[in-house]
Structure formats: C-alpha cells, structure tokens
Design goal:
This protein has about 110 residues and is an alpha+beta fold. The protein contains 2 helices and 4 strands, in the order αββββα. It has one domain. Helices cover about 45% and strands about 10% of the residues.
Length: about 110
C-alpha cells in the first residue's frame, strides 16, 4: 500500500459520536447500502451525509440541502425509493406490453 492511501473506513468505529451511531442504525434498519468515506461522511449512492452536522449534499448539486439531520435523510431516502419503485413499475409494464405484442408469456426482466 502506498504511503498516501488509507485503509478503508469501516461503517462503525469505536469513537463514533451518537449522531454517527444513529445514522448507521437508520441506514441498516432501512436496508440501505452505504459506505463510510471518511471520519465525517457516509456515502449513500449519490447522497453524501455528514451525521455530526446533519448536512446532506447530493452529487452534482452546488450546495448542501437546507433540510438537515437524520429525519431529513430518511425523508430523502424514502422519496428516492418511491421514485425507483415508480421507475421499475413503468419498466415492468412496458415489458409486459412488448411481450403481449410479441405473444410471449414471460415478462420477467
């Protein structure tokens, strides 16, 4: 390992704050995959969450979100999950229409 590379951070560390523990608990409870990218940050897909300050920054956005904290993170994750479910339902409906047109029975993606 080069002297400039750090070993990967584990999601939970012995000296974590209560805020970090609560964020880890929330993400695990929701079944959300995430990684810890630093001592201060959790990365959830394109979402960057800083538990100690409650800041939420989305990749590609120039500023942090105005709503902060664990509640705001949970609301954002639920909204993202809802959008994904709508997208998947649309894809499945389109696949069913195509299969019906072509006379196929299997519509699994």
């Amino acid at each position: 390992m080069s002297k400039h590379k750090r070993p990967p951070f584990t999601p939970r560390m012995p000296d974590d704050t209560v805020a970090f523990g609560n964020a880890n608990d929330l993400l695990e409870e929701m079944g959300v995959r995430y990684k810890r990218t630093s001592m201060h940050q959790l990365k959830i897909g394109r979402i960057n969450y800083f538990p100690n300050t409650g800041s939420i920054v989305i990749d590609g956005e120039s500023k942090a979100r105005t709503k902060r904290g664990k509640g705001a993170l949970k609301a954002l994750l639920l909204e993202e999950r809802r959008k994904l479910n709508v997208f998947v339902a649309k894809r499945e409906a389109e696949a069913a229409r195509i299969c019906k047109r072509e006379g196929e029975d299997d519509v699994s993606l």
